[in-house]
Amino acid sequence: MPTNREKVLNYLNKISPGRATNNDILIATEIEPHQQVFQITDNLFQSGQIQGVKNGKEWSFWIDENSISGDSVNPETVSANMNPLIRELFLKYKANPNEVWVSEYEERINQVRTFRNKPASFLTEKVLHELWMQKANGIANVGLGFMYQSEFDALQEQLPEITIKIINEPTSVKLDEIEVWAKQQKDFGNLKHITWSVIYRVFAAANPDELCTIVNKANLDQLIKTLNENYGFNISTQGNWFDRNSALLKSLKQGELANQEVHLINTFPWMLYEWLVVQAPERNASLSMEHVISAINEIDERGVNSGEKSSTYDLIHNVRCYPPKLVYSLAHKYKDGTELDRSAFEGGENTQCFSDLRGLGFIIERKDFVSELLKKFIQQADEGASLTTRDYPKTYCGLDVNVSFGQGNFSKVPWISFLGYGQKTQNGIYPVYLYYKTIKVLVLAYGVSTTNEPEVVWKFHDHKETIRDHLASEYDFQLEKYGYSYVYSSYHLPTNLTDPQVTLDLDTVIAEYHKLMGGTPTVSPAPVPPEPEPPVEPILDPEAISKSFSAALSNSNVRFGESHDARVSAFVSSLMTKPLVILTGLSGSGKTQIAIRFGEWLGKDRMLVAPVRPDWTGAEALFGYEDALKPIVNGRASWAVPDTLAFILKASNNPHWPYLLVLDEMNLAHVERYFADVLSGMESDQPCLPNLIQESDGCWRIADHGPDKITFPKNIFVVGTVNVDETTYMFSPKVLDRANTFEFRVTTDDLADDYIKPIQCKPGEIGLVRGFLEVGRDDAWHSQNVFTEATDLSQQLRHVHSMLAAHGFEFGHRVFYESQRFAAIYGATGEFNLSNVLDLIVMQKLLPRLHGSRRRLEELLRAFAKFCFNNTIETKEESIASIFEPEDKNTADAKLPVSFDKLKRMLRSLRANQFTSFTE
Q1: Which helix (H) or strand (E) holds 419?
Q2: What does pTM read for this prediction?
Q3: Distance CA 506, CA 428 (A)
Q4: Sign (positive/negative) of CA torsion 101, 103, 106, 107?
Q5: 374 contacts 497 by C-beta, under 8 angstroms
């Protein structure tokens, strides 16, 4: 039996191996050091008792080699010291967990558990397929890899044995062994596309007690880094993926989280990843110019302490330099009341800190930028061996850097100019360095062009000496060239160009230049003339419009088999119903082609294809932003205007013509984040666009006369193409309610032998193109051209609403209204059959809204399928779902065959994966 002394020492060494101290006991018992009333003495070792004061009360703690009893906690809990924000996020997740993850996760770990201690022969091909090939594998989809079918087939003999090894021994050592096997298979050519996530996800399902759902190594490490640096965790970053994943889960299983159910605590890290890592740039992006200016003002008042200085970079503001990380840290205090710990984030190029500050227009430069520039410039000028300037930096403090050593022959006076605001060295004013090699003098000057007289002049509050006079008086040098620029400072080499004063001199001149040019109204509006109003009247005939585009599309070699005309009619009618259409489905099925060809049919230069980027986290991607690096004129800031905004403004200036904006791969980013202003503007007709004009200096600014904002143009139509994989995002009901969603599929009969690559579509007849626009923006068109079976359609839609409402998926007034409008327009194309119209409405407006778990959706899908099959709706008490099985029915016999077929596919997916959505 160990003695009390041995028990205490064993325990302390567990807390702090080899160097246990009195303070370790304080930490373990949460006794504050200044309240300490005991020492580690022989008496302690004899009794195993510690006495102290905690929260103003005396406490006694008894210790053995495994724990501290009494009112104490496990030392690991204290060392983790769960950040309040993490606890708050967990409670939020616990109140509303991701049911899809949880249900799939439980199902998968239960499935894996049944094969533990079983021979490999018990594993069926179906189970292996689910474990190694499916994207949805019961574990949160954070960048999962997958295995090609050919690879799966090549490994059929090995996979059962490998899988059983993982299931029976899901340990760190086993992971190393399996990774060696995988590398060998890759070398053999059996695994050409292996990503370790394929292996990790099997381990995560096999060992839920030690592993959580973050299966992608890069994202796992990112989350650990964030928790360690920003939230006070101390998670080990040593070992393989298993060790790091296990350390993360162990750190989270502390305090209030210790006894949570496995499915909650193990799926929480992926939600945590989204909150703390994925959304972190979005939180930082909310930093405003005012927050940063407040931080700078505080620094001006209190100064910079020695530990706060920056060794490499300066943030330049009003000719003063500030440590960028200190500014960023203090700015967050003015944003949300909490100053960032500067040790918790990085500064430097390609960091969030610099990106946010520069994104607000602040200039950050290396401290040695000017000295390194001048050092290189002087050396090259003195050597006189090369005229090349391609390796010099291109910009500094918002100005273009131009270097010249001469053209053809070496100049006696090489120079560096800093240009902006449309100024040129041949015609303008600008800060400039001039190097007079014969006397070794470098002059920093207020440059004035000599080739042509500049339109703008420098303005000084005191007398400035010209270079000619300065060199004559100071160096007795008679100047041949560049004598009429004004001297700010001169340096007789070898002057120490690394002196901070040299950089400050240049920054001062540049600041004066910015102030002068920004306050001088040198530009005037130069609007692009709008297209003339067309001489022909619009043809308000949806049938003629649809047939015209259908024929033009076919002639451009884009065809949709037997359903070509019907699909085109539905597409065109949907755009006239609501100017937002989403195209989803199989890659290569014609989604992008129909959108691009329709844009060409509208006429030349009336379409823009905008590839959506994953970093579109706000409206700036579409609507631009004020650019602080560009000149301010008459108090009007210049804007950075992306192609999308320029295109929308062009459409706004040409209201007689329709324009098409194609958002390609629109769900690569969260649609609600970058597209919210458009959705709101389309619906409310409230001003949402900056009222910008492009002026003669090429910059965009708010128009001098008129409102600051304008409404979203009624002549803009938006088509978004969608693909679904692990890199994309789901649509919210907010988006789907405002759109018609098309699914593109390819039947075997559609595969034509005479396929020819698509060519450009011919523009449509002007009257029909204008007619498309006029029908589309006439909100009352459907009430004047009523669908022949409108009453029956309304009744059917009410039946569907009651059925959906019983399961919590009811639709609102907007969907009902737009369904009626679509029916009227589509009916005007020649389609009068109620069932066909209702089939499209269900497929395009109602089914896209359905997604969720099997528990929530199965009964509804079967009830909906019954309605689509025979147009009957029974009450829930009549147990529709228990008596109608869609798989037993022939799709061709359904009243709404397109929707019925889709529901059957969604139901199959639901039963196979425990989750389904409209997009596949």
Answers
A1: strand 415-419
A2: 0.47
A3: 18
A4: negative
A5: yes
